[in-house]
Amino acid sequence: MSRAGGWMLARELGRLLTWCAEFARPARLVTGGLVVAGLLAACSGAPATGANTQEVRLVVPDANIREPSDPCSGARAFRYAHPEAAYEVRSGGDVLAAGALPEGRAEKAFSLDLGSARQPTICVMSLDVPASVDLADAELMIGEHGPVPILPNPAFDDAPEAVLR
């Protein structure tokens, strides 16, 4: 979630709690607060991971200048690869999985020390795909962009990876 989105969420939550304090009994306020906290946790956008999912690493080689580990989305020619953009994992014309892109994390584009915190980076997103999906011959579509092959990356223990071009 972006900082702006976080501030807006906090502002709206504050308004909700103010309304509850004015119009509800204190016991309802505590219960309502717990319900709101539970809803925020459930709707935070954090995907459920575990034995029932496998991670597909989506690499957006945009070489945008930012600090490694900063939140990111695709820049320049890859602006279509942004959080909430629809994606599909396909094979042989069949849709195997679908969802919305999550926020990415910036990683160094080069292994050289450039002497600055801000440097060229790539944006990496983690897509959770059901473990039952066979990714052999699978391709990734982001909206109308693609297809991009999903291939094992030997640098990451053959983890499945799609690199945008």
Give the structure's gist in a few sentences.
With 165 residues, this protein is α+β, with helices and mostly antiparallel strands. The chain has helices at residues 3-23, 26-42; strands at 53-66, 71-72, 86-91, 94-100, 104-108, 119-130, 139-142, 145-149, 151-153, 159-163. A hairpin with a 5-residue loop joins strand 9 (151-153) and strand 10.
Structure characterization notes:
The chain has 165 residues and is an alpha+beta fold. It is 23% helix and 38% strand. It is built from 2 helices and 10 strands, in the order ααββββββββββ. The protein has helices spanning 3-23, 26-42; strands spanning 53-66, 71-72, 86-91, 94-100, 104-108, 119-130, 139-142, 145-149, 151-153, 159-163. The strands form 2 sheets. The protein has a 6-stranded mixed beta sheet, with no helix packed on it. A hairpin with a 5-residue loop joins strand 9 (151-153) and strand 10. Helix 1 (3-23) packs antiparallel against helix 2 (26-42). Mean pLDDT is 80; it is low at 1-10 and 16-48.
